[in-house]
Amino acid sequence: MDFSFSEQQVAVRDTVRRLCREHQHLVGPAEENESLPREVFARWGELGLLGVRYPESDGGSGLDKVSDCIVREELSYMSQGFASSWSAHSHLGIWPIWKAGTDEQRRRFFRPAVQGRKIAGFALSEPDGGSNIRALKTRAQRCDGGWKLNGSKLYITNAPIADFLLLAARTAPELRGEAISLFIVELPARGLVVDKLRKEGIRASETGLLHIEDVFVPDDCVLGERLGTYPVILESLSENRVGVAANALGMARAAFDAASAYAQTRLVAGRRIGDYQAIGHKLAEMSAQIEAARWLVYYGAWRVDQNTLDAATAARVKLVASETAVAVSEQAIRIHGGAGIMREYPVGRIHRDALVYVIGEGTSEIQKNIIMRELGFKP
After folding, report:
1. pLDDT tens, 111-145?
2. In the beta sheet, which residues pair with residue 192?
3. In the chain, which ranges are continuous DSSP H helix?
């Protein structure tokens, strides 16, 4: 197994790095305004970055999961807010449509989303459910010509700017667990109110609270019918955990590079602070943590491409990478000293953003529970 990038994967990395230089000036205002410029989706679509993982025959770029993780890592190096919105759109928001949708659903929703002409989101999390999908309370009730949805959703990325959402709802209250379907809800929709949330982390990525009251969804906007979508949701989450681990890797790299650059130029008693063992050891440990996370992330991506990814492997990848991003960004703040909490330096923003990923996409505790089960223990 060769972990070096192919020429094509290097070309993808270089393309994203050029794009990030092009978009760098947008990051500060987007963070301050807590608002992502919609035009970036069109640019991502133009470069084929929204369809990295999808076949060319379906309008995608026909690349692999390793390439997908490269895009995530580089976008996250620039701004996790931008990367989070990209991820919620290009994977969770449209992957289930590609996987389980009809030809007509792909034409109406998937293809324009891949081109950046429509913005997508994935509405799964709820106020009372946390990381437990089986606790989902939003209900879908049969009606003439379709379904009516009632409930609420919380922490839904892209909801304030989305053209459509994949909304998970329970279709059979008498059945446990798997009686969940995904409904394509076009926005604005009568009965659906989106409250924009203000966040400490990933501020550039817009997030919403959804109030859902008798929202009508026609039959032609239902994925997987009455009982068919639960496995698609689980599969999507497992693969996306490898993806968000790549996001965490990008944040860790950015924090380390900022700390290393500061340690090169900041002088104390005539010496660079990086030459003091207390600081040098921090940088050495951060470097080792990042290298370990990098190997694990791209091993996970390789497993996806080999169609051998299992839930426990995905959990290990996500657990290690997300905790690394938090630890490295915290040490980066310490190395900066007082400057670390000043907005002129990126490390405070990176740390706030990194904290999101020990919670989002399944908390670290959820990842440990998944690993425990694989080891034969019952959490």
Report:
1. 999 999 999 999 999 998 766 777 889 999 999 99
2. 212
3. 7-33, 39-46, 65-78, 80-87, 95-100, 103-105, 111-114, 230-265, 277-305, 311-336, 347-356, 364-374
Whether the pTM exceeds 0.85: the reply is: yes
Average pLDDT over all residues of the chain: 94
**What is the per-residue pLDDT for 47?**
96
Which architecture, in CATH terms, is 120-225?
Beta Barrel (2.40)
The whole-angstrom separation of Cα 287 and Cα 180 is: 43
**Ranges in the chain, pLDDT < 50:** 1
Contacting residues for 9 by C-beta, under 8 A, at least 6 apart? 63, 64, 66, 67, 70
Given a contact cutoff of 8 angstroms between Cβ atoms, the answer to whether 332 and 347 are in contact is: yes
Tokens of 150: 């009632």
- For 297, the enclosing helix (H) or strand (E) is helix 277-305
Q: How far is residue 294's CA from residue 297's CA, in Å, rounded to a whole number? A: 5
Q: Residue 177: its pLDDT value, please?
A: 62
Class of domain 7-114: mainly alpha
Distance, in Å, from the CA atom of 353 to the CA atom of 258, rounded to the nearest integer, reads 15
Q: Phi first, then psi: what are they for 270, rounded to 5°?
A: 80, 5
Tokens of 268: 């104390």
Give the residue numbers marked as catalytic.
Answer: 361
Cβ atoms of residues 120 and 158 within 8 Å:
yes
Place of tokens 């425990």: 372
Helices marked H in 220-276: 230-265
282 touches 334 (CB < 8 A): yes
Q: Any idea how long the chain is?
A: 379
How far apart CA 185 and CA 63 sit, in angstroms, is 29
Q: Where are the domains positioned within the chain?
A: 7-114, 120-225, 231-374
| Fold of domain 231-374 | Butyryl-CoA Dehydrogenase, subunit A; domain 3 (1.20.140)
What angle is formed at CA 196 by the lines to CA 192 and CA 197, rounded to 5 degrees?
130
